[in-house]
Write a structure and sequence with these properties.
Layout lengths: L2 H8 L12 H13 L7 E8 L2 E8 L2 E10 L2 E8 L6 H6 L4 H15 L4 H8 L5 E2 L4
Antiparallel strand pairs: 1-2, 2-3, 3-4, 4-5
Amino acid sequence: MKVKNLIFMLCFTVGVGCIRQNDYCKIRHLVNQTFSHTGVKVEVDTIVVVGNYALDNWRQGNIAGRCLFKKQNGNWVIWLCGGKGLKEVAGLVQAGIPADTAQMLSQKITDAESTFAPEIVQKFDDFGATINMSEH
């Protein structure tokens, strides 16, 4: 099965949302609902999920970065937004994620981003300081 077909099966978004309400679709919807109100749509490029944690990378206009999510009471919440630190095991562990989960998230996002041009990955890395979204 081609990757394009798999992505289509995972999440189909055309205004009405996802056909299947899986974790990937719920996270994509949450990001768009939270950040697209500025008039500039958020493009979520990659979402990786390990247990009750997820990590994405995104672009919105001239900025890009990553979001760290945590599933609480069956719902995904945006926990942190940041750059390179959210891709590194040490940064994820510092954020409070168990080491084994942090290792898997880091590996999955690194593998996914290996298909992007280096300048795009650099934009994700360059987001800046990590922002605790639970305080906003």
